[in-house]
C-alpha cells in the first residue's frame, strides 16, 4: 500500500529505550511496514523521568505520567511524529494538543506471579513479594495478608534477576511485558482478573500523535483496533472520574463479548473495577452496557465504588501523598 499523504515518506517514532519499550515499538513498526512498504521508519529513543529515577518508588515521583512527559515534549517540539506508550502509563486525561491515534489489538491484560516458591496461595508466610504498584500491593494483601509486600523498581530483566538471586521470593508484574520479551515461560502463575484486577489500559499500546497533524493521525489510525479502543475508553473513563492521584490503589478491566463491533451489533461491554488501600482493604464492582456507552459505564462504576467506601480510600491515599511531598 502507498503511504497515506503525498508528503509522508518517513516517520519518526519516539519511544523509551528499555528493552520492553523497544520491543513494543518494534511491534508497531512491523505493523506499519506491513501496510506501507515504502515508509521509512526511524526509531528515536527518549529518556523519561521514570527511567532516570529508577531507585525511587513510582508513586513518589509522579506515578502515571512519569514515562510520558518527555515523549510528549518531543512531539510538541517536532522532534518525533508519534510516541508509543504502554496505555497503562498514560494519565487519565490527555493534553488537549495530543490524541491517541491508535490502540492496536490488545495483548494479555493479566498480571502474573514469578516465584521461587510456587503459586500465590503456596507462598510461605513472610515471603517477600515485590511490586511497585499500590493496586497490586492492595490485592496481594487482600489475598495473602501474611506475606511481605516490598517495593521493587527496574526494568523487567532487573526485576526477574532480583527473584533469581533471592532478593525477593516472588514478583507480580504484567503478563504482556513478559510475553513481548519472550519470557513468559518464567511465569509461575497467571492471575485472572477475578483474583487481581489489572491496571487501566494494561496490555494495550497507545500511539500518540499531535492533534493538529492529521496526516500522521490518519496513517497511524490504520493500526487502531475498535474493540481495544472501546475497552480502554471505558477503563480510562473510570480512572478519570475517580480523579485519583498516583498513590491510589485502583484498577479496571473491560471485556467485550465476541462478535461484530458496531451500532446494533448486539455486543455487550463488561467493566470490572476496584478501589482499595495498600493495607488490603478494597471495594469491587461490575457494570454492563453497550460498547457505545463505554464512557458512561466507566463513570457509573467509579461512582458506585466511590459511594461504597472508595472515596475514603482515595482521600487517605491523597493525604499520604501530600505528607510525603511536604
Quick structural overview:
Helix 9 (226-242) crosses helix 10.
Q: What can you tell me about this protein's structure?
A:
- With 326 residues, the chain is of the alpha/beta class.
- It folds into 3 domains: 10-105 and 204-224, Periplasmic binding protein-like II (D-Maltodextrin-Binding Protein, domain 2, 3-Layer(aba) Sandwich); 111-191, D-Maltodextrin-Binding Protein, domain 2; 231-325, Double Stranded RNA Binding Domain.
- It is built from 10 helices and 13 strands.
- Strands 2-1-3-10-4 form a 5-stranded mixed sheet, with helices on both faces.
- Strand 12 (269-276) and strand 13 (282-289) form a beta hairpin.
- Helix 9 crosses helix 10 (294-325).
- The radius of gyration is 20 Å and the shape is globular.
Amino acid at each position: 500500500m502507498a503511504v497515506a499523504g503525498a508528503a509522508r515518506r518517513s516517520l519518526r517514532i519516539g519511544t523509551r529505550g528499555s528493552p520492553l519499550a523497544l520491543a513494543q515499538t518494534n511491534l508497531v513498526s512491523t505493523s506499519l511496514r506491513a501496510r506501507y512498504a515504502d515508509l521509512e521508519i526511524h526509531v528515536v529513543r527518549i529518556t523519561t523521568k521514570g527511567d532516570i529515577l529508577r531507585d525511587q518508588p513510582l508513586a513518589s515521583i509522579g506515578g502515571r505520567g512519569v514515562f510520558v512527559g518527555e515523549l510528549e515534549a518531543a512531539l510538541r517540539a517536532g522532534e518525533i511524529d508519534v510516541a508509543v506508550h504502554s496505555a497503562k502509563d498514560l494519565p487519565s486525561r490527555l493534553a488537549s494538543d495530543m490524541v491517541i491515534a491508535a490502540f492496536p489489538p490488545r495483548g494479555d491484560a493479566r498480571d502474573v506471579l514469578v516465584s521461587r516458591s510456587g503459586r500465590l496461595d503456596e507462598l510461605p508466610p513472610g515471603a517477600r513479594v515485590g511490586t511497585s504498584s499500590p493496586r497490586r500491593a492492595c490485592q496481594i494483601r487482600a489475598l495473602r495478608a501474611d506475606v511481605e509486600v516490598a517495593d521493587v523498581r527496574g526494568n523487567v530483566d532487573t526485576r526477574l534477576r532480583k527473584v533469581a538471586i533471592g532478593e525477593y521470593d516472588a514478583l507480580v508484574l504484567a503478563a504482556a511485558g513478559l510475553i513481548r520479551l519472550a519470557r513468559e515461560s518464567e511465569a509461575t502463575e497467571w492471575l485472572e482478573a477475578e483474583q487481581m484486577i489489572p491496571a487501566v489500559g494494561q496490555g494495550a499500546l497507545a500511539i500518540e500523535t499531535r492533534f493538529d497533524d492529521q496526516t500522521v493521525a490518519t496513517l497511524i489510525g490504520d493500526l487502531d483496533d475498535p474493540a481495544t479502543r472501546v475497552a480502554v475508553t471505558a477503563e480510562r473513563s473510570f480512572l478519570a472520574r475517580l480523579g485519583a492521584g498516583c498513590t491510589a490503589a485502583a484498577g479496571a478491566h473491560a471485556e467485550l463479548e465476541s462478535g461484530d463491533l458496531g451500532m446494533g451489533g448486539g455486543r455487550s461491554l463488561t467493566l470490572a473495577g476496584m478501589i482499595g488501600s495498600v493495607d488490603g482493604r478494597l471495594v469491587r464492582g461490575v457494570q454492563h452496557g453497550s460498547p457505545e456507552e463505554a464512557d458512561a459505564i466507566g463513570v457509573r462504576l467509579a461512582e458506585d465504588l466511590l459511594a461504597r467506601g472508595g472515596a475514603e480510600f482515595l482521600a487517605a491515599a491523597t493525604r499520604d501523598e501530600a505528607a510525603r511531598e511536604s
